[in-house]
TrEMBL record:
Annotated Basic and acidic residues bias: 14-28
Keyword Cytoplasm: no
Organism expressing this protein natively: Suillus discolor
One GO process term, biological-process aspect: carbohydrate metabolic process
The protein's name: Glycoside hydrolase family 16 protein
Length: 593
């Protein structure tokens, strides 16, 4: 006999089932396929309607748990849903507690009876015996259970000489490497050239506390371009050179603010004689370029008839009065050094085409005004050399040709005096040894920095703030070495004289003159120059770079620059603290003898 099943879980309890006691002639209710009410349940769902409609349209109450007289039993026979709903008084056999299944609250009905898998029984019949899975033996652990004894290591009983020798060889090799590294470090530390305080004797210290000391400084007052075709005139006017806040200010101003007629006079129809002019015979020397092609010649003159003390503006000839006024100081005939140290703490100016510089020129044997500046014991510039401690540009860091985030040092020299013998410009007869440092955050116009130069007969060093930021670091050994400046220049054996067309022998001008040491021409007394230039035709500002409004080779270069004054003056800060070249202090030491 099959086990009894509950009515609402068996497949026989479908909606179209008929009871065995039903008459075959009894009518069956039509059950809608779209809506089928669930069978009676012992659980009342929340929010359910207490009155429910039966299949034939009548209402019946929600069923409750079956009582003792309930007909809801499990047995072999099944009842029709139609009879069950239509005959509420029909008595059904009571289901036993062992076979009656009730769902727990909130549990979804199972789609099929729950079953639990169990392995098939083992039978004597081989065809139905479940074969067990084969298992491999566990791998034996390689971990040592105890520390090996000497008996377990028979190879230690007999030592070979090569093994002992290899250990000592490795040890001595490592020790030798450490000793060599220490020796290299010590040699590198010893090779750093330093000037101790005991080697230096103070020559000048100017902190600019009150006024410009005439025992240290002289004014350069002229408008001839200083050999570079510069566009400014240098004055001793208190608006251009003055002391403020314990600092020296070199302030660029517009000439139109200081002369009668204003900007119209600068451009045309005026003659301006520079008061207290100190220039003699034109601006020869002091150039940082080669030959006369970049000097202040008549074609690129900044004044009438190349007069460094008078300027004429003429619209037809294309000449103008220098559009900017600035300042330039030097220690010529007052404070000089031959070997030692120079320190200048300064803040650079900000503004397009400004050219601040701290540099040195040879003193020479004649310090009178009749002798041009830059003429040393070996001759006129550049034979006696030029030392540029610091040069910079006032253009913003975005300027492609190194703006105010770069500072530069250089050594300039050559075997022929500029302008005295017009050597063909196609030959290399001038050398500039240079280097620079840069900052990636801000620029050198944001604050003060120390620009220093250390110099002996054996080495030279240029640096900014500390020796780790060296711009140039040179060794000088002997005349026969490559460090000798004439050998470094790589000058040709002969050159063509452009005026006569004859060849000229390029000889060493420092071999016999004035002792001719290995440091020549930088083995003589030099004085200090501090100035703020504007523009120029020397190539310091390359053509067609950064919106440059003039060309160096143009006869009207200064006029072209002046005509664009609205553009470049817009980049000059109105605050003097930002526009001026500010010097905090200047110190000069000589190498004690």
């Amino acid at each position: 006999m099959a086990s009894p099943r509950p009515f609402f879980l068996t497949p026989s309890s479908s909606d179209d089932h008929s009871s065995q006691e039903d008459s075959p002639d009894s009518p069956r209710p039509r059950i809608s396929k779209r809506r089928q009410d669930p069978p009676p349940s012992a659980f009342t769902f929340p929010f359910a309607d207490p009155a429910r409609r039966s299949l034939d349209g009548s209402f019946f109450e929600t069923p409750r748990l079956p009582s003792a007289e309930s007909p809801y039993k499990s047995f072999n026979r099944s009842y029709s849903l139609a009879n069950l709903h239509r005959s509420p008084d029909l008595q059904l056999p009571r289901a036993s507690s062992a076979t009656t299944i009730f769902r727990s609250p909130f549990l979804s009905p199972a789609s099929r009876p729950s079953t639990i898998w169990s392995p098939p029984p083992v039978s004597a019949n081989p065809s139905v015996v479940a074969l067990p899975l084969t298992q491999k033996k566990p791998i034996q652990s390689t971990r040592l259970k105890a520390k090996l004894t000497k008996d377990d290591k028979p190879w230690l009983a007999k030592k070979r000489r090569c093994e002992s020798g290899s250990w000592w060889l490795t040890f001595f090799a490592a020790l030798l490497g450490v000793l060599i590294a220490a020796a290299l470090c010590f040699r590198g530390w010893e090779s750093v050239d330093l000037l101790s305080d005991s080697q230096l004797c103070l020559v000048m210290q100017d902190d600019f506390d009150s006024s410009i000391d005439p025992n240290n400084w002289s004014y350069d007052i002229e408008l001839g371009g200083f050999g570079n075709g510069e566009f400014e005139m240098t004055t001793d006017d208190p608006s251009n050179v003055y002391i403020s806040n314990g600092q020296l200010y070199i302030m660029p101003t517009l000439t139109s603010d200081s002369i009668d007629g204003g900007w119209d006079s600068v451009m045309s129809g005026a003659t301006y004689p520079l008061p207290d002019c100190t220039a003699q015979g034109g601006g020869s020397g002091n150039s940082t370029t080669t030959g006369s092609s970049n000097s202040t010649t008549s074609s690129n003159s900044t004044s009438s008839s190349s007069n460094p003390c008078t300027a004429v503006s003429n619209n037809q000839s294309g000449t103008v009065i220098n559009p900017v006024r600035s300042g330039r100081l030097n220690t010529r005939g007052k404070q000089t050094i031959k070997y030692g140290r120079v320190e200048v703490r300064a803040k650079l100016p900000q503004g397009d085409w400004l050219w601040p510089a701290i540099w040195m020129l040879p003193q020479g044997n004649d310090t009178s005004s009749s002798t041009g500046q830059g003429t040393g014991v070996y001759g006129a510039w550049p034979v006696s050399g030029e030392i540029d401690i610091m040069e910079a540009r006032g253009n913003l860091p975005s300027y492609p040709a190194q703006g105010s985030n770069y500072v530069r040092s250089s050594l300039n020299y050559g075997p022929f005096a500029g302008g005295s013998t017009p050597i063909s410009t196609g030959e290399r007869l001038f050398l500039s040894i240079y280097g620079w440092v840069s900052t990636k955050r801000g620029n050198f116009a944001d604050g003060f920095h120390v620009y220093a130069f250390e110099w002996t007969s054996e080495w030279m060093r240029f640096y900014t703030d500390d020796r780790l930021q060296a711009m140039i670091n040179l060794k000088i050994s002997s005349k026969s070495s490559d460090s000798y400046f004439f050998n470094t220049g790589g000058f040709p054996g002969v050159a063509m004289n452009a005026s006569s067309g004859k060849e000229v022998v390029v000889s060493d001008p420092w071999s016999t003159a004035y002792g001719g040491s290995a440091a020549a021409p930088f083995d003589q007394e030099f004085y200090l120059v501090i100035d703020l230039a504007v523009g120029g035709t020397s190539g310091w500002f390359p053509d067609s770079v950064g919106g440059k409004p003039w060309y160096d080779g143009s006869a009207t270069a200064m006029r072209d620059f002046a005509s664009k004054y609205e553009e470049w003056t817009a980049t000059w800060p109105p605050n003097p603290d930002e526009r001026a070249f500010r010097i905090d202090y200047v110190k000069m030491w000589n190498l004690c003898r």
